[in-house]
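=== RUN LOG ===
request id: a7f3
mode: sequence -> structure
chains: 1
length: 428
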Amino acid sequence: MRIIIAIIILGVVIFLHELGHFLAAKASGIRVLEFALGMGPKLVSFTRKGTVYSWRLFPIGGYCSMQGEDEEDDSEGSFNHAPLWKRFIVVAAGPVSNFIAAFVFSAILVAAAGADPARVAAVADGSPAQEAGLAAGDMVLSYEGSGISSGRELYADILLDGVPADTVTMTVLRDGEELSLSFAPYINSRYMLGYQYSPEDKTAMISGVIEGLPMEAAGFEAGDVITSINGTAVETAADLAGYLEEHPLDGSPITLTYMRGSAEKETVVTPVMYTETTVGFDVNTAREKQGFAGGIRACFAEMKYWLGVTVKSLKGLLTGRFSIKELSGPVGIVSSISTVINESAAYGIAAVMMTIIEFIIMISVNLGIMNLLPLPALDGGRLLFFIIEAIRRKPVSRKVEGMVHYVGMMALLAVAVLIAVKDVIGLF
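=== RESULT ===
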């Protein structure tokens, strides 16, 4: 069931993108040949005012086919016959509709669950941050020169940009007064296995493994659930946290039993000494109900968070900080959504609904930004040709443009196939 929900989420987001193109084309007087829900063989269709509305077999997205969109056709009602500004709006309407959808769902999320103000939750004793005067309750306004609107945004900045090697700079709000703080990063050495989990979870589910540390080398993956450690049963995440508090890691081998799907596995992992550089404090990520004005700000903060994460992730991919192996296609996205929905189900239907909404926001923003990239076959590539046309005062040869988009499409399909193969292999 959760896989079906994941497929529907992905399909809805792509469908909304195509709906933006469709509505803009209709409003611009461009003839839409077909507006399809889904891809592949046609299951059901009907025709109204010259447009075929179809429901196709595979429930992943859809498409909006316009007359003369990819061919030499300047007849009345064709895409090429429309003025440049109308064509620009029609192509841009896809990504814009994704951003609008993301904002609408952000409003629903904030109204239902609230926002996560970037309030300092705890400061490590003896850390440079504590010595500089940072205290629990301070509201973080900026970190390393970037404005901070939520706790998750701060964590994302730290994760994606890293912790400065010399000085951390922040601005916080305390009792209505803005304070500028600067301090050295907190350097902490300890034995680690190299995994992440939430002590508040009902099960000791691994949410991530750290590259280069023993858990990754042992083959652990996000979604694995630890059921015992050194023979001691672990039923909840709190049990795991309690055991590790009573038996701190000291370099001795650890025997872990865990569940992957329905299969039980056991392995021995040896912790290693790991020196990590952190900011030396924790910030709130729990959602809190907001008033009307706070809710409006929180909606924009939600959008800002996902836009920032997407842009910085893309930047990290282009600069080589992140590997292409970390990309996911539809298969990987559906698998990830399914895993997270399964995890949130332990907290009830409300948690599942909030998880679904968050995924819709995330994928909508990602799809909107990716489609605006000036690459052939993407909306951004088409917009780039329109900009060139505006500068030259005449369009680029339709044949040349078509060839560029065709080559780009083949390249994107090749990358998509490689990512899909990687995702499928990762399921086993």
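=== NOTES ===
The first strand starts at residue 32 and ends at 48.
The chain is about 45% helix and 25% strand.
=== END ===
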